[in-house]
Design a protein that fits this description.
The complex is a heterotrimer. By secondary structure, chain B is α+β, with helices and mostly antiparallel strands. Chain B is built from 3 helices and 6 strands. Helix content of chain C is 34%, strand content 16%. Chain C contains 4 helices and 5 strands. Classes of the chains: A alpha+beta, B alpha+beta, C alpha+beta. Strand 4 of chain B pairs antiparallel with strand 3 of chain C.
């Protein structure tokens, strides 16, 4: 199962730390694509069959991409933190070059996140509908995880997926009843606090509090924001991207609101951030009618 | 123990003595006062000169911060700067952490006794004004000195 | 032995970062530091030019023998030192490298021939090269030629490089090759040096 790792020609001592995991600064990116069996005929066949069980044989057909990412235990859904950091960096510089003021940069980031948010609500709601015991036993992991996948386990996972298409029941059979729509503001915020945060950052957010001053305000606390952890504090709040995601989720769940971020440093957590969710008046009115 | 070469520079920035061993196994191999080493001598002088100026800036103001060793991944240069402006430089392998004793011996027991005490040998090797600033060509050719250096450093070569 | 100053020199020899860690460090003007950085950049190249002949001969013969793929250019591995700089005092990770400590093996230095280490009456100066030509320079407050101390310094500077990769290169507001003004880099470098 030993994978061939693509090393830059300059790395000298790859053999000295074979057991190490994670991104290696000294080696650069590692190949995480599996060694797919090279058989030109069947690949073409499976392409047209869309990974259905009629594909030539389980061994040579490609797993369906769609099945894989909808699966609640998609345990190989990792993104290298470094790779994401550079992508995020590019996103910010693009916003910066196109903007004239700080608030405009933040608005652009916010908008980028918003579009992710409205899609994320669909995906995560669907995933929560699949009963927990269904499919793989391994727990779901974070999207932006620090551990890049061990290449050999990746092959295993794909092999599992290969067999899934034939032996295991389809995803639809794992859903006994769809998850109910979140109706109360607190419910949907709980959903963001736990499910969304775990999906994005691999842990639940640090706190969810209701404002004591205003009825329509809630605060989500993250003491070490994952996305902006490398960014020295400047005038621009890069976590507006995450604000956008939250607002996108809440908006498409029919909780129109406005999300802003405030950095509240603490001695141990210099980058502690508080996301302030301010619901529109209609949400409160609706809530009053329901009760 | 391995040493690779030995150099002396005078206060006019001239190299007045160089001895390089080319074979580790043979202490009599290599060159003495060779014309081929002129460029290397200039580079070596330049490197030490620059690092010396850096170290003097980095040290505290009230005392003099003289350079002692320079190490690269392959060799180590040991340096002794005397009050009269002479530099004694010895290149060795990386295992030699401090050869200042050896350099001090070369200065006090060999250079002083065979060159300075020797009335027939010049002490200042630049005779005219245009032999200064690296333009000098006169070297220590004193037989006693050469012999003493060979005897002292020869056993350390391999 | 304490670290007096850490410098970062970019690949064209410009000083991009300079920070003193001891209160009584000599005050050099920024111009003097710039000259110092440029000089070091030159010396690094010169130092490899004056490799003794007997070493050059050795290198050629072993390269011809073909036993070692890198010839004599591969420097010996630098031993790994302790758990220096894995986490901050409150247990938070210092960078994005994995804890308890990602680097727990000896590593090969990329500095095959160039300047590595200088000692003077009062200081030691350590140089760490990266493959991309950035140089990390540490000045300590005591002269030492001890192989152990050199290895510790090398480890320290390698960690500094990691922090640089995290907090400078991943900062969208940093212009490459320009002076580093990143609070987080300052802060984490401070923690790292304090652990010595």
């Amino acid at each position: 199962m030993k994978q061939k790792i693509i090393n830059p020609s300059t790395s000298v001592n790859t053999a000295t730390h074979p057991g190490s995991t994670g991104y290696d600064y000294t080696m650069g990116p590692q190949q995480t694509l599996p060694d797919l069996p090279v058989s030109s005929g069947t690949i073409a066949a499976s392409g047209t069959n869309g990974g259905s069980s009629t594909a030539a044989s389980a061994h040579t057909s490609l797993p369906s991409v769609y099945n894989g990412s909808l699966h609640p235990h998609a345990h190989n859904q990792h993104v290298s933190l470094a790779a994401f950091a550079f992508l995020f960096q590019e996103l910010i510089s693009q916003a910066r070059n196109a903007s004239k003021s700080v608030s405009e940069i933040e608005m652009r980031l916010h908008r980028n996140g918003y579009h992710i948010g409205i899609r994320l609500l669909e995906l995560l709601n669907f995933r929560s509908s699949v009963s927990p015991g269904f499919g793989s036993t391994s727990s779901s992991r974070a999207f932006f995880s620090k551990t890049s996948i061990n290449s050999s386990s990746n092959t295993l996972a794909l092999n599992n997926a290969l067999t899934t298409t034939q032996d295991e029941p389809s995803l639809a059979q794992g859903i006994s009843h769809m998850k109910r729509r979140d109706l109360k503001p607190v419910e949907i915020l709980q959903f963001i606090h736990s499910t969304v945060w775990t999906y994005l950052f691999g842990r639940v957010s640090d706190d969810l509090v209701k404002s004591s001053e205003r009825d329509n305000e809630y605060m989500l606390v993250d003491s070490a924001p994952m996305l902006s952890q490398f960014i020295s504090s400047t005038n621009v709040q890069c976590d507006f991207f995450v604000c956008g995601i939250i607002e996108g989720i809440l908006d498409s769940a029919s909780f129109p609101c406005n999300v802003t971020i405030h950095s509240v440093p603490e001695p141990n957590f210099q980058q502690r951030a508080v996301f302030v969710v301010r619901f529109e008046q209609q949400v409160l009115e609706r809530e009053a009618l329901r009760a | 123990m391995a040493i690779y070469s030995f150099w002396i520079f005078d206060r006019h920035c001239n190299c007045i003595f160089d001895r390089e061993w080319t074979l580790k196994t043979n202490p009599s191999s290599g060159t003495t006062n060779s014309k081929l080493n002129e460029d290397t001598a200039k580079l070596l002088y330049g490197m030490i000169f620059s690092l010396r100026s850096i170290s003097q800036k980095l040290g505290s103001l009230d005392s003099f911060n003289e350079i002692r060793t320079i190490a690269t991944a392959k060799y180590r240069a040991h340096i002794l700067c005397t009050a009269s402006g002479l530099w004694f430089v010895l290149l060795s392998d990386l295992k030699q952490e401090d050869l200042s004793q050896v350099l001090r011996y070369l200065y006090s027991e060999i250079y002083v006794k065979t060159v300075v005490y020797n009335w027939l040998s010049p002490v200042d090797f630049a005779e005219t004004a245009n032999e200064k600033r690296g333009q000098g060509f006169r070297k220590i050719r004193n037989r006693q000195f050469l012999l003493a250096v060979e005897q002292f450093l020869g056993p350390m070569v391999n | 032995m304490a670290i007096q100053t850490i410098l970062v020199i970019n690949k064209s020899g410009g000083l991009v970062y300079q920070r003193d860690f001891v209160p009584n460090a000599p005050r050099l003007s920024s111009n003097e530091y710039l000259i110092l950085a440029g000089t070091l950049q030159g010396i690094v190249a010169i130092a490899s030019q004056i490799t003794p002949k007997s070493l050059q001969l050795d290198g050629k013969s072993s390269a011809r023998g073909g036993s070692e793929p890198m010839g004599n250019n591969s420097a010996p591995l630098v031993p790994y030192m302790g758990t220096l700089g894995a986490t901050t005092a409150n247990g938070a990770p210092l960078g994005s490298f994995l804890g308890p400590d990602y680097f727990n093996d000896a590593f090969a230095s990329w500095n095959g021939r160039g300047l590595k280490h200088v000692t003077t009456d009062q200081n030691s100066l350590f140089v760490y090269h990266t493959l991309t030509g950035i140089k990390f320079v540490a000045v300590s407050t005591q002269p030492t030629t001890n192989a152990m101390a050199v290895a510790v310094a090398e480890n320290l500077l390698r960690k500094t490089y990691c922090l640089y990769a995290d907090y400078v290169m991943k900062n969208p507001f940093y212009e490459p090759e320009m002076p580093i003004k990143c609070e987080l880099f300052d802060q984490h470098l401070g923690t790292l040096v304090k652990q010595l």
